[in-house]
Structures are given as structure tokens and as C-alpha cells.
């Protein structure tokens, strides 16, 4: 099925920690909405001050569970930026400085 | 004005190329800052950069104030990076490829346009064009600039530029050291024995030590904190920071690091698995005394239960065996009883062969991604570190763990096993 042109959804991780539970909440917000399942998803990380390994693991798994969806991580704090560099999150997520930048990037790159 | 430093597909690790004692990326930021540009967007493509680059980018270097890091999957080009950084495409900015070092008066370049800069005098290299324009704007005709620029696309190019800078042939490249003789520079805190033989061009980095009767140069750069043992002979070499070059080692035309030698001419990488020739100045992390004491304390009370279970299982299978991991004999095997599985490995911990939880950092990093099943620590943290069956996820998290291993993290992971 070709990608839809649905508008991006913006989900915010409440923070202050990127935990397995926080990512689980994200996954629940993504899954039930079958109509927009292929709309790009922007994850706002500006509240995150701490990352846990299980949270990171869950985030990578979340991405792998939605292979057809384009994801963007925005407003990465230093711990998230560190994880993004060290884990190679950029191979899984589009990383942008802000929600607005993610909107423009996803629209441009999505054609 | 802002600047973009964009990665070049043909040269993915240019940022850390050493230019007379400083990484190329640092030199670029210094040049931009000297020209009044402090807001710089730096693209970091892929995840195969040396961890030292990530450490520096995430550190507190004042040069990074005002910088924005954009991790990307692969080099995207200036336009895509600007989009991700939230820079309007009609904004005039400096676009600098990650493998280009330029020098010259940046304020002269305030007028938008494309500037052609030639290589420093005496260096045979094609001219480089630096764009100062809006990414969506019309392409201006190139004009000549009286500074210089050079594409530092390989360790050899970086080394050649370093040597030119040491001899004063690359104006604007600041050497952080004292010129004790023409072309021979000593960094702050560097110490050399009285009977060493030094030939220009030569740079000995800060806190480095050169022992008796060593011969250095010509065309050698020694990184910060290196130790060059006695009677070593090095010419046409660059030495990575904190590398120990062993006694009487001879090298020519190579970049030397703690465990590798890379040919400067063709980039061939040769592993040197001999600490008498090359090693780190600082020894790899050793097993903590507290872990060893805890292992000794646990060995006694668990002995009887472990013997009983082992004897019961013995008629059917041999539950514990010894395997060689990089030359170290380690106990591996499973009894199928969670609390007793780690028992034989406690002996390894007690004598300092492996850590109690997870792996010691260098051992784990060196083993990735070849050996996911490495029995690196007595207590396996993988189930609580990456509760995922995806190998890719596990590898990524193991790498993250290797970089962040600490007592608190180990304790949290160990506790999580019982959740």
C-alpha cells in the first residue's frame, strides 16, 4: 500500500525519563488509530532528562514494529542526543531540532 | 550568519583527522569562530564514528557553544541538513564540507557568493569552492579569495597539511606548542629525554613523553599523552593520542593507534595485537576490587548447592566447561538453575579475569559486533538491558552499555532481572 498523505502526528514523551513505560504509552497512542497508521509520527523529546536502557530498547523496538511509518525525534536533550549518536538512532529515526523542522523535513522528504 | 558543516560521503571520518595536534573539526570551528560565526550546525552521519568523536561532541568544549548536532543516517547534503536544523532555505549561510579546512579572513566573505580558494603555497592540490549563499538562492559566479583551503580527504592529506603547518607553510593554522627548533614543536607538558634525536617537521603533543635514544622525524606528529619508548624510530608517522609505542619499534609512513597501524599511502589497516609494540597508555579497566571480594564472599555459601545440582546433572551432561576468549580461559555453561548458573564464573571474577556484571568496557567494545554471546560478565545483563529478541536492538544496547558501564547501571540492571 502506498504511503498516505496524512498529516504528521506529534506525540510528546512526558519525561523526565525515557523509560519502558513511557515508550509503552507512546505505543498505545500509535497502535489504536488504524486510520492514520501510516502517517508520519513526530516524537517530541524535549522533556527527557534521563534515559534508561530498557526505554531505549523499547524505542528501537517501537520503530521496528512500525516499519512502514516514518518517525522523527525532535528537540533532543543532551542524554537523548548521546543515545542517538551512540546507538545510531539516526538510522531508524529522522532527527530534527524542532517540531516545525520535522514537519518541513517529513513533507519535503515524503514528496 | 550561520554555518553548516556537512559530511562528505567519500570521507566519513574526516572530523577526527589530526591537523597539527588538533582534530579537523576543531580547526574548522576555530576558523568559523575567528570569523564571528558561532552558530554552526554539524552533521554527524552514520554510527561508525570513533566513540571519541561522540565524547567530544557531547562534552563541554567552549567551541561547541552555539553548535547544533544533527545525527543523520548517511550524508544528506546541505539542503536536507538545513531543513532538519530548522534553517530557512532562503537564509544566507556558510556551507563547509566536513573534509575542507580553510584559512583566511572570513569577514571578507560576508558578501554572498562562491569563493574559490587555492591550496597553501607548495602544496599540490585542486582549488576548493566555499559557498556563502542561500540554499534556495541563485548560484553566484565563483570569485577568487586570497585565503587558502584544502580538501583533507585522507589521513595522508591531513598528515601532509600538518607537516606544512609545522614548517610555517600553512598560514593561519595555529600550533598549540612551543617551537624549540625550526619546525620542531613541543606541546604543553611534553617531556623528552636528553639523548633523543628529533628532526623537523615534528610535533610532540601535550603531556607526551619521549624516552631515551628514540628517533622522531622527519614528518611525525605525536598525539596528546603518548609515550614513545626508548630506541623507537618513527618517521612519516602520526600517532593517535594516548598511544604507547613500544621499545625499539620502527614505523614509517603510517598512522599508529593503540592496536592498529594504518598505512598513510593506501589506508591499509593492520591489527597489531602485541602490547609490547602498540598499546594504550592507560591500561584497560580492571575488575573492581569490590566485585572480586563479593565473588569470594558468594563462593562459599553457594558451593554446596552448586555441587549437589552439578552431581545430579552429571549423568546426563557436562554442565560447565572452560573456553578460551581472546586467550583467557573462562568458565561457561548452564545448569538451568538461575541462581547457580553464574557460580563457576564467580571464580573468574575472584581472580580478576572477568567482571561481576556485564563486561569491562574495552572488552565489550572490542567484541562487538562479532560475538554477541561473549561470556563477558559472570552475571548476564542482556535480558534486562535489551529485553528484545531482535539482534540489532541487542547489539545497539550492548554498545550503549559498553560506553556507560557504571556501578549504578549494573545494580539497576541486576535488580531488573528479578522483576
Description:
The complex is a heterodimer of chains A (111) and B (419). Chain A is α/β, with parallel strands linked by helices and 111 residues long. Helix content of chain A is 41%, strand content 17%. In chain A, the strands form 2 sheets. In chain A, strands 1-3-5-6 form a 4-stranded parallel sheet, with helices on both faces. A two-stranded parallel ribbon of chain A has the order 2-4. In chain A, helix 1 packs parallel to helix 2 (53-65). With 419 residues, chain B is α/β, with parallel strands linked by helices. Chain B contains 11 helices and 29 strands. Chain B has helices spanning 24-34, 51-57, 78-84, 155-166, 289-313, 338-341, 343-350, 361-367, 382-385, 391-404, 407-416, and strands at 2-6, 18-19, 22-23, 39-45, 67-72, 92-97, 100-103, 113-118, 128-134, 142-151, 178-181, 184-186, 191-192, 197-198, 202-204, 209-210, 215-216, 220-222, 227-228, 233-239, 243-245, 250-256, 260-263, 269-271, 278-280, 321-325, 328-332, 355-357, 377-379. Residues 369-375 of chain B have low confidence and may be disordered.
